[in-house]
Structure formats: C-alpha cells, structure tokens
Write a structure and sequence with these properties.
Length: 192
C-alpha cells in the first residue's frame, strides 16, 4: 500500500482488508462501471498511477466538480487506486450517484482500442465482487450498472437500447460489450 495525499494505491490482496476497515455511513445499492477513455493504455507507464489520478482530478475540477469523480480506479497492472472517500457521493452517472460507488477502469474499451489485460480483468472482477459482498448486494443488472445504460440528459435508465442520449462507457468491448445483454453473458457470470 502506498498513499500520496488522499490517493491510496492497493494491490488486489490489500483491497479487501482496506474495504472492511472502512466505516460507510451512506446506503450503497449499486456499483457503477466506467472506462476512462482518456487516459488510455498508451498513457500508462506502469509507475504513473498517482500522476494519472491527479491529472484526472484536475480535469474533473476544470469541469466544475469538487474533486475527482470516481471512488476507485483500476489499472492494467491489476492495482486499485482509492480516489474518493466512500462516504462522498461520486459524480459518475447522472441519476445513479446517490446510492452508488463509481469505478473507473483505466483504458479505452471500445472495439478496436485497448485490449484489456488479464490482470485488469481479474482486478475488475475482484473489486466488484468485494464491493457487492461488503454491501450485501446480489450480482445483477440492477446492482452493477454501466454508464451506457443511462440517458445523459435525464439521468434515467434507458428502457431500450438506442433510445436516448448515451455514452459508450464502459466501452463497446468491455467484457464483450456495453449492453445489458452483454453484461448478462460477459461480466455477470464472473461475479457469481
């Protein structure tokens, strides 16, 4: 474990004990999945975890946020950065923040872009399972959500694919795709 200011870098093996030691005073009902898009894999050197998160925080502040949007960031080397206190509501998905935890996965996971490393895949599964367990949530499409499933303007969950204004986030190739059906066949079975 290494910390610089509020940012804490953990190995997967350290994450569960860190999480269990946290006192969380707000109700958690879902875990959000995102990709950073930029920075992408080409920006990751293997040793610049802190610099990338500090740069993301600066960019988020320039957009009017009080601090970095996400609670956690995962990296291609399987490491996890604590970015925002769990008691602070994230700024991840309009309409799904109040009871959410936001995970940004470093990379651009649209088709034809970054190929997710096996360590990051393992990390995403690990952190998501750990959060679901800690907050007593059953893995499903209502407890693990993708940014793509929410309308950017209304903040409401879209009823049908292709309706409303959405982002591709967490990527059109994130565990096989960014649709609810892709989640059910790609990531969901790995969380059970």
């Amino acid at each position: 474990m290494k910390a610089i200011g509020k940012f804490i870098l953990l190995d997967m093996s350290e994450f569960d004990s860190w999480l269990q030691a946290q006192t969380v005073k707000r109700k958690i009902m879902l875990v959000q999945q995102h990709h950073t898009y930029i920075p992408a894999y080409k920006h990751f050197t293997g040793s610049n975890h802190f610099q990338l998160c500090q740069s993301m925080e600066q960019a988020h502040k320039e957009r009017g946020f009080a601090e970095i949007a996400q609670n956690f960031t995962t990296f291609p080397d399987g490491k996890i950065m604590v970015c925002r206190n769990l008691n602070t509501i994230p700024a991840g998905i309009k309409g799904a923040n109040s009871y959410g935890i936001c995970i940004e996965n470093l990379g651009n996971f649209d088709k034809g872009k970054d190929n997710m490393s096996s360590l990051q895949k393992e990390c995403i599964i690990h952190i998501t399972r750990s959060l679901l367990t800690r907050f007593k949530l059953v893995p499903s499409e209502t407890t693990v959500v993708y940014h793509h499933w929410y309308d950017l303007n209304t903040g409401k969950r879209i009823a049908k694919e292709g309706i409303g204004s959405t982002k591709a986030c967490p990527g059109t190739n994130f565990f096989g795709g960014n649709t609810v059906e892709a989640f059910k066949t790609g990531l969901l079975p790995l969380l059970k």
